[in-house]
Amino acid sequence: MKKVLLGLLVFQLVTFTANAQIQKGSVLLGGSINFANSNNDQQRTSDLGSDRNTTSNEFSFDPKIGVALENNWVIGAMVIFKTGKSIMDATTYSSTNSSKEKLTNEQNAFGVGLFARKYFPFGDKFSAFGELNSGSLWNKNSSIYEYNNGTPAESENKYTEYQTNLLAGIAYFPKNWMAIELSTNLVTFTSSNQETNTIDYSNNSFDFGLNTSAISLGVSSFLNNK
């Protein structure tokens, strides 16, 4: 009985796959957005120590255009916009007095890249997909540090970042020409070289993005897809 049910399931998926395809020659117009917010509040447990609160938020938008070179294979170009802000407030207590400090960081980035996406239909309205994209981002970071309400110390840093992402997602097709997508980064590789007046350093990192802050919501339309 189990074998019969498994055979029927496979037959159903194969049948659905034939009906849910991105056809060769279709043009993809779409994009995705991501918003993440966090708040970390640390309270001292004795008369000494520090109270510290850190809040941060990030927003990104990635419009894309591509073409299906083969059924369910799309390659194209993308533009990347990112912005974020974090604020750290801390009060440190000693046996004689207390001190306050505040650090505000703002980041803005613009970039361009290329992507390749493969769709894996599993129903008449659903498809899983995997995507590999890579591009360059031009970043600008601004920081303001305040200590005991004194004169703020400001700094600015500009640098170029190279980023490659492997992501996976699922798409729902209410119409053959439109998809609502939910995706998450699986692996991100980042390489950057930063220079300031006092330091010059390079950074290479791998991130495994299986968390809510790595989830993006997107919408795509497919011109000429029947």
Automatic annotation (TrEMBL):
Q: Which UniProt keywords apply?
A: Signal
Which residue numbers delimit the Outer membrane protein beta-barrel domain? 20-183
Q: Sorted alphabetically, which Pfam families does this protein's record hold?
A: OMP_b-brl_2 (PF13568)
Give the signal peptide, or none.
Answer: 1-20
Is Ribosomal protein a UniProt keyword of this protein? Answer: no
* Zinc found in the keyword field: no
Q: Which InterPro entries match?
A: Beta-barrel_OMP_2, OMP/PagP_B-barrel
Which SUPFAM superfamilies does its entry note?
OMPA-like
Q: What is this protein called?
A: Outer membrane protein with beta-barrel domain
Q: Which organism is it from?
A: Algoriphagus ratkowskyi
